[in-house]
Structure formats: C-alpha cells, structure tokens
Amino acid sequence: xxxxxxxxxxxxxxxxxxxxxxxxxxxxxxxxxxxxxxxxxxxxxxxxxxxxxxxxxxxxxxxxxxxxxxxxxxxxxxxxxxxxxxxxxxxxxxxxxxxxxxxxxxxxxxxxxxxxxxxxxxxxxxxxxxxxxxxxxxxxxxxxxxxxxxxxxxxxxxxxxxxxxxxxxxxxxxxxxxxxxxxxxxxxxxxxxxxxx
Length: 197
Hints:
Helix content is 74%, strand content 0%. With 197 residues, the chain is mainly α.
C-alpha cells in the first residue's frame, strides 16, 4: 500500500528544495550528498525519497520551480503595468527583487543547470524562453519607430540579462543602494542606451 501524503507534503517538498539550494550554491551539486541535504533539513536520508526520488530530481525540481516562479512573476508584473516603459520597469524590479531575495536559488539556476539531463534541460529551456521572449517583445514595443534586426534584438536582450542575472554575485543587502534604486538604475541605463539606437 502506498504511503499517504501528509497535509504539509508540498511545504516539506519546497523546504527540501530550499535546503538543497543552499548546499548546491555553496559547495556545488557534485560535492553535495543526499545525506548533506537530509541533515540540512533535519530529516533522515530515507525520508527524502518520500518527496524526491533522487538528487537529480531535487536539482531539476529546484530549477524548474525557480524559473517557473520567475516567469509567472514577470508575466504578472508586466501585465499589470501600462506603457512599454512601465512594463520594462516592472520586469526589471521583479527580477532584481527576486535575485536579491533568493541568491542561493539564483546561483543554482545560473550555474548548476549543466548537471541536468537532456530531458530536464529541455523543460527548463522552455520556461526560460518565456522570460526571454517576453523581453524580446518588450524591446520591440519600446522602439516601434525603428527596425531592429532579430539578431540585434536578441543581443540587446542578452545584454539586459547580463545586467540583471549576476546581481546576486556582488550585491550586498547591507550596502547603501536599495533594491528599488538598483532596479531604477538598471532601467535608466538600459532605456537611455536603447533610445540612442
């Protein structure tokens, strides 16, 4: 008979992903054992299998959950905004706040996807492209008065993500610049550069 799911099953599953993110980010996926994750969660290794079937499944679950969560939040923030400029500011603020508030998870998302198998990578890439395509469309909406080649639109989008994706590496919450100020600075630099095209 299958073991019944506890009422807090989904919460416990997410707790394991959070704990794994800390370990994967700080010591690497290959160097992290299931025993380490279990210890970080305060449970037995055997209990992990009730929530995730393997270490790879934990990594895949963590990355898919994080990127899906980002995509949903970006889509919601931009949908609620008005003009393309307001949508751009909303997207930037969303990414900056998420990257600052969950640095370990973002580090895993950016650095540990190479450990995913091909099937998992295809799933993750499909979600990533929702965010990328959102930015590609936004760039065109920001400058409808000029023809930007597909090649250049892609390059501009990647330049934008280059500004945002690595914030977790250098940003210090105790520093003098606050998340909303940083988001405004990134938006201003990007939009003013785009206006110069």
